[in-house]
Structure formats: C-alpha cells, structure tokens
Amino acid sequence: MARPKITVIGSINMDLVTEADRRPEAGETTLGRQFSTIPGGKGANQAVSAARLGGKVTMIGCVGEDAFGKDLLEHLEREGIITENVEPVTQLKTGIAAITLAEGDNSIIVVPGANNALTEDRIVQYENIIADSDAVLLQLEIPMPTVIRAAKLASKHGVKVILNPAPFQKLPDELVNDADIITPNEHEYVALMKEYSGDPNTIKEKLVITKGGEGTVFYKQGQEVHIRGYKVNAVDTTGAGDSFNGALAVQIAKGASLEDAVRYANAVGALSVTKFGAQSGMPTADEVHHFLAEQIS
Fold it and tell me: Which amino acid positions bind K(+), per UniProt (predicted)?
C-alpha cells in the first residue's frame, strides 16, 4: 500500500529552554541549571509525528534565513519530511518559544517571527500540492486567513481537512464548514462551544475531543462515543496533542474509520508521554504496533 500523503501547513519554531531553580524577579539576574535548543512549533511537531508513523509528509511553512532556520530545515529532512516548500524569508527571524522551567512549572513567550510570513497569498501557490494530498493538517500558530484559505483549497479538491484549534482562537464559520475533523482538547472544547455562533449540533459531528489519559470523545449521529485512553507512566506530556494529531491524520489518510483512527492515535499520544520532549518522545509505527499488541495480550 502506498504511503498516505499528508500535507502539514503550520508553524516551525526553535524552543529555547532554560531550566532554573526559580524565576528571577523583575530586574534580577539569577543562575540557571541548563539551557537547550529543541525543534518545535505545532506544525513541525505534527509533521514529525506523521512521518514517524509512515506518512509521506510535506511541510509547508516559513523560517528565517538564520542559523535556527537552517538547523530546523536539516532536522525536518532527517525525519524524512519533504521541506522544499518551507520558504526561508529574509525580513523575519525564525520563530522561537522562550521557555523557562522553574518551580515545577513553565513560562513561555512565543515570538512567531517568520511563521507570520506564511500568508494566504503564499498558500495559493501550493494548491497543486494540497490537491494531491490524502489529508491536510492545520493548526493556529500561523495567520488565521492562511488557515482559512488552506482549508478552502483542500475542501475544493475533496481532500480531508484536520484542524487542531490550538492555540485557541475563535473559529470563523467558513473554517468550521471546510474542516472535516476538528480536534480540541477539553479546555479548547469549552472555549470553542462558547464562541461558536452556528448550530452546535453541526459542529459537534466534526469534533474529536482529547481528554488526556481519559481518552477521546467524538459524536456519531448525535450520540457521544468514548474511546478509552491507555494507562502509562507519564514522564512529560509536552507534545502529546501534536503526536495524537499526526497519528490521526495518517490513519484518516489511509481510509481508517474515525473510531479506529482515534484508537490508534490514543496509543500514539500515550506512548509520547513516556519520554521527555515533544518530538523526541514521538513513537515510530513499529513501537505503536508492539504497544497495541501488548494491550491485547
């Protein structure tokens, strides 16, 4: 069977992670324990997840013409992701997330940078790639008009659109209409239903709501369907949602039923939290196969 073709349109960031015993007060300088640069961005994370699970993944996005942009492109290529449509831009730096880990919690400042250069005008030139996809995966770390245009182009060509509404923003009706599957977590679900002005029953039929270890809920002909989660020893939940979305896209692109796709994606999300890091914890297809076999035995 041919590898399912997934096009991921979204953000590519470098995460700048500082670990410290405590956060400095305003005007104060303190010593940290460790500093790391880690590839991130919801778009890139989901692309890595889909690629490790056997998808033929094309990434569409923007980075700066700087050291971080070069490193991130090389990283995506090592993961087997097609990057010829990731455009380096001169006027903006590569997007970053400055993350401070201290006192058992994190503080994050995201600077979108070159991700904001992924405009709807740029997306139009990738229509042939979108049309040739089995599924298009979108998130909200790039400009909303770009997300809307990408979904419309995919819908025009009958390509499945999976929208991960994170970080949460109010979804325009036209984007909801063009999306086939919308994947909020339980907090985003509450915000989504509060902000959505259309028929709640219409949007509910498109929702796949992730609830961490409790599993996932979706609606079928108005009835709630619950797919259980898997009990694992959670080490780091960073990137679990991105792992889930990449897995869901691969299974939907293969033609799996929503129920089977969600069950598989739940396993991927569970495995991803057993290791540190967003992308570093994402499992391969073989690891998922062995994990599911162990659940049956």
Answer: 236, 238, 272, 275, 277
Angle at CA of residue 96, ends 90 and 98, nearest 5°? 150
Residue-range definition of the domain harbouring residue 193: 5-19+34-296
Written as six digits, the tokens of 106 are: 């994190």
> 272 among the known binding-site residues?
yes
Annotated binding residue at 41?
yes
Q: Does 24 fall in a domain?
A: no
Residues paired with 14 in a beta bridge: 39, 96
- Which residues lie below 8 Å from residue 38, measured CB to CB, with a gap of 6+? 14, 15, 17, 277, 278, 279, 280
- Whether residue 239 is annotated as binding a ligand: the answer is no
Q: What is the value of pTM for the model shown?
A: 0.94
Query: What would the pLDDT profile of 147-168 be if each residue is shown by its tens digit?
Result: 999 999 999 999 999 999 999 9
CA distances to 10, 161, 194, 216 from 219, rounded to whole Å, are 27, 17, 18, 10
- Number of compact structural domains in the chain: 1
Residue 218, SS3? Answer: strand
Which regions in the chain score pLDDT beneath 50? none
Residue 27 placed within a domain: no
Closest-CA residue to 99 (of 28, 39, 164)? 39
Q: Is 206 among the domain residues? A: yes
Is residue 29 situated within a structural domain?
no
